[in-house]
Amino acid sequence: MVVTVRSLGLQGIAGYEVSVECALSGGLPAFDVVGLPDAAVKEARDRVRAAIRNCGFPFPVSRITVNLAPADRRKVGTVYDLPILLGILSASGQLSMKGYADAAFLGELSLSGRLRPCAGMLSMALAAKAAGLHKLFVPEQNAAEATLAGGLEVY
């Protein structure tokens, strides 16, 4: 099963939409992140694995592939932690993402599963608005900045 969670990224000071596609399949257990991730994005594997376990969910024992699209743009930072976690939980049947097609998710995870703020939130919120999204889920410390884009429900 493939699950897509909408997110956003930064290129310079401009935000752009990113689709976080999560697929679980048979085979030896593995966790791969593709789509031009930098070192911080690749390290999301460890933060997400620990956060899932520390939030009381079982981590799926399967081959996990996460694609960050568009694959031709370099993905930087920790903003993709939350959408990767949600994609994995949804693809494994532990969480439903139905009803969130018009929403984007952003945020760095601590090992305990708490959200940490991310830089560039206003630019990403403006990109969300331009992409026609209506809801934006962000760390609490970024909420005020995200509301400056206007026209979005910020959670």
Overview of this structure, please?
- It is a single chain.
- The protein has a four-stranded mixed sheet with strand order 1-2-4-3. Strands 5-8-9 form a three-stranded parallel sheet. Strands 6-7 form a two-stranded antiparallel ribbon.
- By secondary structure, the chain is α/β, with parallel strands linked by helices.
- Helix 2 packs across helix 3.
- Helix 5 links the parallel strand 8 and strand 9.
- The mean pLDDT is about 95.
Order of helices and strands: EEEHHEHEEEHEHE
DSSP, total strands: 9
The fraction of residues assigned to DSSP E strands is: 25-35%
Structural category: alpha/beta
The oligomeric status of these chains comes to single chain
Largest sheet, if any?
4 strands, mixed
- Based on CA atoms alone, the radius of gyration comes out at 14 Å
How would you sum up the global shape?
globular
Q: How helical, in percent, are the residues?
A: 25-40%
Overall mean pLDDT stands at 97
Q: For the record, give the distance between the C-alpha atoms at the N and C termini, rounded to a whole number.
A: 27 Å
Number of H/I helices: 5
Uncertain ranges: none
The strand line-up of the biggest sheet is: 1-2-4-3
